[in-house]
């Protein structure tokens, strides 16, 4: 069948995954049907490759993957296409800001994840992909955002209303999807992007069809072409059934 949309780029947490971090059997069934009908299904996540790949295995996906919000694009599992690193000096500044404000923080290097309880001894010797903050206090969060915006070279998004995720400037899931499209010989107008948080916003704005989950942050719903059911109610099934395999 000749479908209008050839690529389905799926955020994981809050989108593909239910709140129990499982993919529902119904969603698995529909993803496999989409693949059977020639649609490329691509995981597009803030997670590191090692935390995302088990789900690709479960879904039997061999297509490209976008990890760490686009800091890494994989041609296929374990076959790295492109990696974008944070400036070490910016990581040092972000770490100092996290300590000063007493925030919970974490960061990914190409090898592992560090956090407040287990911080990297030597920032300089590591290759950094992403830095994150979590804080429940709105005033502290606003202060951190203002300070981050003063630092050049950062792409600031979130994966929940109480956190920030920071990648190198210009690196986001939309850029990741464009690169995957290039690898597959597609145009981004042939892509469907689905998500629930601000790290999905650029992708949802730029894809041929931008889909917000029912549980998505309001900004995302406002910008999306379509809003579907929540991550716990098989919203992804709706996307595949009603917008991709609908026989257009």
UniProtKB/TrEMBL annotation:
One of its GO terms (molecular function) is phosphatase activity. InterPro entries: HAD-like_sf, HAD-SF_hydro_IIB, HAD_sf. It comes from the Bacteria. One of its GO terms (cellular component) is cytosol. PANTHER family: 5-AMINO-6-(5-PHOSPHO-D-RIBITYLAMINO)URACIL PHOSPHATASE YCSE, PHOSPHOSERINE PHOSPHATASE. This is Phosphoglycolate phosphatase. It comes from Paenibacillus uliginis N3/975.
């Amino acid at each position: 069948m000749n479908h209008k949309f050839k690529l389905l780029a799926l955020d994981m947490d809050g989108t593909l995954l239910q709140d129990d971090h499982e993919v529902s059997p119904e969603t698995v069934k529909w993803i496999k049907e989409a693949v059977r009908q020639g649609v490329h299904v691509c995981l597009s996540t803030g997670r590191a490759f090692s935390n995302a790949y088990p789900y690709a295995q479960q879904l039997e996906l061999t297509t490209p993957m976008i990890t760490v919000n686009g800091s890494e694009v994989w041609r296929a599992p374990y076959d790295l296409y492109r990696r974008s690193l944070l400036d070490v000096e910016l990581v040092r500044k972000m770490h100092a800001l996290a300590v000063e404000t007493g925030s919970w923080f974490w960061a990914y290097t190409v090898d592992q994840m560090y956090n407040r309880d287990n911080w990297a001894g030597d920032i300089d010797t590591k290759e950094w992909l992403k830095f994150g903050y979590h804080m429940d206090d709105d005033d502290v969060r606003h202060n951190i955002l203002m300070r981050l915006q003063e630092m050049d070279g950062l792409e600031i998004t979130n994966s929940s209303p109480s956190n920030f995720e920071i990648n190198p400037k210009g690196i986001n899931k939309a850029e990741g999807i464009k690169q995957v499209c290039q690898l597959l010989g597609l145009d981004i107008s042939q892509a469907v992007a689905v998500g629930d948080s601000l790290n999905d916003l650029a992708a949802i704005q730029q894809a041929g069809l931008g889909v917000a989950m029912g549980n998505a942050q309001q900004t995302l719903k406002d910008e999306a072409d379509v809003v579907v059911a929540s991550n716990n109610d098989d919203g992804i099934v709706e996307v595949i059934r009603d917008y991709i395999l609908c026989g257009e």
